[in-house]
Every structure is written in C-alpha cells, then in structure tokens.
Amino acid sequence: MKLIIGLGNPEKKYEKTRHNTGFMAIDRLAGEWQEKPKFHGLVSEKTVDGEKIIFYKPTTYYNDSGIGARSVKDFYKLDNNDILVIHDELALPFGTVRSRVGGSDAGNNGIKSLNAHLGEDYARVRVGIGQEDRHENDINFVLSGFNKSESDSLPHVLDLVDKLVHEFISGNLEHISRKI
User: What is the CATH number of the domain that holds 79?
Assistant: First the structure.
C-alpha cells in the first residue's frame, strides 16, 4: 500500500494557482474523492499497477498539511518509504520537475509541517513554479495563476509528474531533475 499526497489549498479561489500544483497533479490520478474529517482531508482509494494506493488532499491549508498526513499514515500503518508528496517548488523554474527522498523543507511551509509530523525521509516530487525575472512578493506569486505560456505547458509538466508517480508505485523512483 502506498500513500500519495498532493499539496494545495482547499478553497475554490486557489484552485488554479501555482500553490495548488500538487492538487492538480493528484486530481489527474485519483478516482472519486471522499471527505474524511478524521484525516482533515479528502481521500481516494484505487489500485494502480497492482498496488493499493491512497490518494490524499489535505483540507487544512497548505502550511498545515502535516496534521492530516500523520493521521492517514497512522491509520493505514504506513512507513515513510510508502509515502510520496507532490508539491510546488518556488526555487525551481517553471517546467522543472525533481524527485528525491528526504531533505529539508527549503523554506516551504507545507513541507515544514510534513517534516514536523512525519520526519524527512519520504519521497517527494517537486514541481517548479518559479520565474527567473520575478520581482514580486513570494506569497502573492505562489497564490497567483499561471500565465498563458505556462498554462499551455502545464499538461506536459503534469504528464512527467504522472510518470514519476508510477515509478514510485513500482518501486523505481530515481532521484532526477527534468525540464520539459
């Protein structure tokens, strides 16, 4: 059994923002969502490549994602090597996708919350949302939508994320950095 967590914010106004890239990615893979108040989130269960997968979207805000994630982990008695988190990464240029196991939060408050509740040794897929010429407030930027060019390329980025999720499920996730 594997747990795939997508990070984002629950309100409709955040639906198409950069900070909800994790939700966008997981929505492509999961089935029907069920609200689970005891997990502070939405859960979808399905079998992928012969493996039972729990897809999870916190209904807490991004910065408190660890609370519900810990509840899901404990309920299903999972180890951290059975957990993959998909999240946006401001430090990476748009179109860059990196995977790895463990590491610091690098200033990402959602990861900081997960690390506090789970430890640091779970797999991650980091989806770049940054722009090299950006000169505005980080909070406003991550809560903004993608520009036209990025919106047109986003499906290709999410295709790469899908591939990495399937690699994780099959036990073959490598530490990679790819740019579309």
Answer: 3.40.50.1470
Catalytic residues: 19
pLDDT 10s digits, 34-86: 999 999 999 999 998 789 999 999 999 999 999 999 999 999 999 999 999 99
The maximal CA–CA distance of the chain, rounded, in angstroms, is: 46
Task: Give the C-alpha distances (Å, rounded to integers) separating 18 from 41, 43, 45, 100, 139.
Answer: 20, 22, 25, 21, 10
The number of distinct structural domains making up the chain is 1
DSSP secondary-structure letter at 32?
S
Whether 21 and 74 have beta carbons less than 8 Å apart is answered as: no
Cα distance between the two ends of the chain: 30
The residue range of the domain holding 47 is 2-179
pTM assigned to the model: 0.95
